[in-house]
Design brief:
Helix content: 25-40%
Number of helices: 10
Distance between the termini: 29 Å
Shape: elongated
Number of strands: 14
Number of domains: 2
Structural class: alpha/beta
Largest sheet: 5 strands, antiparallel
Strand content: 15-25%
Length: 320
């Protein structure tokens, strides 16, 4: 779910609500900086800022922020004993900024810009003397910038928006579709490709999955792969797999995985080597794709693949 969009819709409707953002952490905490939770009418929530006592206090702070029409900054010190008692695997400090969602045109517009943006910087004043002080800058943040931070003087919450990594899934059969759905649920941007229109049918998938009925050449001709792209090949046959790997094995994509067995890897390696694909490029292809957890069903395979994609995203590794 796009929590920025959910916040914008609540604010526009004027039905009450609040947006909580983890602005600063120290030590071990339930969630990283930038994590959000939207609190709607009657305490309905989307997202999480850590659960347990933290979330209970933020729900109370959300009600208070709505009542006074101004934001609050909450600090929680979670020692290891308290965290364990409350079911939280943490023992640090977390500061959470809670702002009321107000039906003011300029304020709603900033939320909408953030919802639609892949990159940018959102700056929000911690104190609102008379009205919300929130702005959006479309300039991409520095690569090393944290997702969120409090300014040195503590007067601003600064959020750096970056698009999550993209996953291109070739093949919209049972396994490919399951991988696409699991990857989207884990927060990746997903493009699902199949040359069969009956499989690449957008009505089969939720709106957070982009679906393209197209041949491989068309897709890879107009799609520039970069280090934050992952490619998962799960087509219906060796010939289709080989055509894709020939194009992507040596690309700049940060991750390339192939659904199949070691035998399939050997067959395709021989064929692609004969076509001149460098051994180094072929050697980085993950075959079988995903973590070795004994997965058998499409859904289990999807879990294994997306677990490996998460490891690649968070740690830069693809350890078994």
């Amino acid at each position: 779910m796009n929590l920025w969009r959910a916040a914008a819709e609540l604010a526009r409707a004027g039905s009450g609500g609040a947006l909580a953002t983890v602005a600063r952490t120290a030590g071990s905490t339930p969630v990283p900086v930038g994590t959000k939770m939207v609190v709607g009418p009657a305490g309905r929530i989307a997202g999480t800022v850590g659960g347990g006592c933290v979330e209970a206090d933020i729900l109370a702070a959300a009600s208070e922020a709505q009542r006074i029409g101004a934001p609050l900054l909450r600090t929680h010190h979670l020692n290891a004993d308290l965290a364990g008692d409350l079911g939280l695997s943490c023992g640090g400090t977390v500061e959470i900024f809670v702002e009321p969602l107000l039906p003011l045109t300029e304020y709603v517009r900033v939320l909408e810009l953030a919802a639609a943006a892949e990159t940018g910087v959102v700056t929000t004043a911690v104190a609102w003397p008379s009205r919300p002080e929130k702005s959006f800058d479309p300039a991409p943040p520095a690569a090393s910038a944290p997702a969120a931070a409090l300014s040195v003087d503590g007067r601003l919450v600064i959020e750096h928006l970056t698009a999550p990594p993209r996953v291109l899934v070739f093949g919209a059969g049972h396994v490919g579709a399951a991988i696409a759905s699991a990857a989207a649920a884990a927060g990746f941007r997903v493009l699902l490709i199949d040359d069969r229109p009956e499989f690449a049918d957008a009505t089969r998938f939720p709106p957070n999955i982009s679906v393209r009925a197209s041949g491989v050449d068309d897709v890879l001709t107009d799609t520039v792969l970069g280090a934050r792209d992952a490619v998962v090949v799960a087509t219906r046959g060796h010939r289709q797999d080989a055509g894709i790997l020939e194009r992507v094995a040596g690309s700049a994509a940060g991750y390339v995985g192939l659904l199949g067995s070691r035998r399939k890897q050997a067959v395709l390696t021989r064929a692609l080597t004969a076509l001149g694909v460098p051994a180094e490029a072929l050697g980085r292809v993950r075959v079988p794709v995903g973590l070795d957890i004994g997965a058998e069903t499409p859904e289990e395979i999807a879990v294994s693949v997306v677990a490996e994609l998460i490891a690649w995203r968070r740690t830069g590794t693809t350890a078994s």
